[in-house]
Amino acid sequence: MIDIRRIFTHVEQIHHEFGPIAATPLLRGAIGVVLTNPFAGRYEPDLLPMMNALQPLGIDMAERLRAAMGVPAQSIEGYGKGAIVGADGEHEHGAMWHVPGGYAMRELLGWKGDRLAYAKGQGEAKTGQPGNALAIVSSTKKVGAPGTTLDVPLTHINASYVRSHFDAIEVRVPGAPLAVEIIFILAMSTGPRVHARMAGLAASAISQWDGLR
Amino acid sequence: MPAKIRKIIVQIDETRIEMGRSVSPPTRKALAMAVIENPFAGQYTENLDALITIGEELGALLGQRCVEALGIEPGQAHSYGKAAIVGEAGELEHAAAILHPKLGAPLRIAVEKGAALVPSSKKRGGLGTAIDVPLGHKDAAFVRSHFDAMEARVADAPRANEIVVAVVVTDSGRPLPRVGGLQVHEIQGKDGLR
User: Fold this and answer.
1) Residue A31 lies in a domain
2) Which CATH class is domain B5-186?
3) Is A71 among the domain residues?
4) Does the distance separating the beta carbons of B10 and A11 come in below 8 Å?
5) Which of A59, A211, B30, B73 could make a disulfide contact with A135, Cβ separation 3.0–4.6 Å?
6) Chain B residues lying within 8 Å of A5, measured CB to CB
7) Chain B contact set for A175 (CB, 8 A)
8) Residue A135 belongs to what domain range?
9) Cβ A4–B16 below 8 Å, yes or no?
10) Residue A1: which pLDDT band, with cuts at 50, 70 and 90?
11) pLDDT, tens digit, 9 for 90 and up, residues A81-140
12) What is the domain count for chain A?
């Protein structure tokens, strides 16, 4: 069911954006895995088996991206995910990535919840201890031609309202997806926008540990 | 004066299947790009030495980043290429100054040897302009299985006063080469051609 044709990784090191040079450059990265869409050209009512089959791929991609960025998991502060579906597929095929993509990164970054429970629509039992990677992983998806760009949103891993970490990274795999393919994408960053100065909730002020604030 | 670098981007493109056939081992291409300030933007300057020096610096930096990204020993590199996109306040000759006089020598150190010419392309462009970086085998330009290209593009560059400089290093040729010509095992590696 999982037939990987290409793996594309992208890491950028941002020193400045015409303002003060960052003491530590911001790292942003994305990984796109190009695979055959088993449902191309037809309507498949049951997408859940494929969604479940993608779980190990998500975990492998998250680790590959972290390794390409060359930082420990503790350095990852922002994340996002996305999918580009080739022309013979359906927008909903991109949605198969919500659970495996999101929870792969949350697992890598320290979240220890129950993925299977989540897949069944059940929330994980809160222990009261603040874990890591508590925030929802924001996402975008589209149907597109080879070389289509996707702007993948990035938000803080522990609190969605942290304003300094609202960002996006443009992802594009030249020559993909073909009509019968899908690209599943994960993205991560090591910090706020390089010249963030729009106030709002600061990462240092997270206090609710509810994934939002 | 060293290059004023705004961003560095590294990409790896790994192909495992082509036309339904397994590619084993997978082909891998690494692209490293630097977005730099063009010190001569908006003016005609007779002497381009500052850009020539920047080319030397970036040949080492970007060559090493590619080899690191592939996780290989320098001698395991197969092919290479280079390119530059000059923002609209610069001239094509600025790309030439970076690419041609001095970028090659440190790149060859990064990939060990490199008897062959480093194929190149250049253009003037705006934000998000894509350039196809030509690739050829590093020790023998006539190796047909390694004629290839990799697309380089930075979404927010080059600004008018910037230059995008790109270097590609691979550890392989095309995914399923079968159009004959000089083969890797036939390389003599002396004249850079065969």
Assistant:
1) yes
2) alpha beta
3) yes
4) yes
5) A211
6) 15-18
7) 151
8) 4-205
9) yes
10) confident
11) 999 999 999 999 999 999 999 989 988 997 655 556 655 655 555 544 467 888 999 999
12) 1
Residue boundaries of the structural domains of chain B: 5-186
**Is A211 among the domain residues?**
no
Q: Which residues of chain B have pLDDT under 70?
A: none
The pLDDT tens digits for B37-75 are 999 999 999 999 999 999 999 999 999 999 999 999 999
What is the DSSP secondary structure assignment for residue A146, as one 8-state letter? T
The beta-carbon contacts of A132-136 under 8 Å, at least 24 apart in sequence, are: A132/A157, A132/A158, A133/A79, A133/A105, A133/A106, A133/A108, A133/A109, A133/A157, A133/A158, A134/A158, A134/A159, A134/A209, A134/A210, A134/A211, A135/A159, A135/A160, A135/A211, A135/A212, A136/A102, A136/A160, A136/A211
pTM score of the predicted model: 0.90
Is A9's Cβ below 8 Å from some Cβ in B? yes
- Whether residues B155 and A170 touch (CB distance < 8 A) is answered with yes
Per DSSP, A76 falls in state: -
Contact A15 B130 (CB under 8 A): no
- Tell whether A156 is covered by a domain: yes
State the average pLDDT over residues A161-189. Answer: 97
b/e per residue, B110-123, with b = 16+ CB within 10 A? bbeebbbebbbbbe
Nearest CA in chain A to B5: A15
- Averaged pLDDT score across all residues of chain A: 91
CATH of the domain at A57: 3.30.1330.110
Given this model, what pLDDT does residue A153 score?
94
**88-127 in chain B: CB under 8 A from chain A:** none
ipTM: 0.86
